[in-house]
Automatic annotation (TrEMBL):
InterPro entries: Ig-like_dom_sf, Ig-like_fold. The keyword Signal applies. PANTHER family: MYELIN-ASSOCIATED GLYCOPROTEIN-LIKE-RELATED, SI:CH211-171H4.5-RELATED. This is Immunoglobulin V-set domain-containing protein. It comes from the Eukaryota. Residues 1-26 form the signal peptide. Keywords: Signal. It comes from Xenoophorus captivus.
Amino acid sequence: MFRRMDHKRKITMCLFLAAICSSVFGEWRATVSKNLEALVGSCVVLPCTFTHPASFLSNSRLRGIWHRKDKWEENFYHEDHTKILDTFKDRTKLLGNLGENNCTLEVIEVKDHDNGPFCFRIEYVRKDNN
């Protein structure tokens, strides 16, 4: 969670993983930093990688979503910008390539109210065969 430290104007963030696990696809794992510090007004990069047990079908793709812990609908990163909380719009960017198991995220202009904990989840999306 972000925690304001007045004397240094730093915030601390704890990241937790929320990966979708399925008996069909096996177990997924992500590696994220548990705590990060960032100066208010600066940008911060949240390193994140993940592994999965099986390859995907050619008619599938991955969707990475960053959200508040226990509040899956409160997204601070989503490929559909209409699903991002207003306070995070235009301030988050996925730097990683999900096809390369990289879910690294950048947050610019860190605010003292950008409090977590935050989670990353990945969704397996089937493309239509139309």
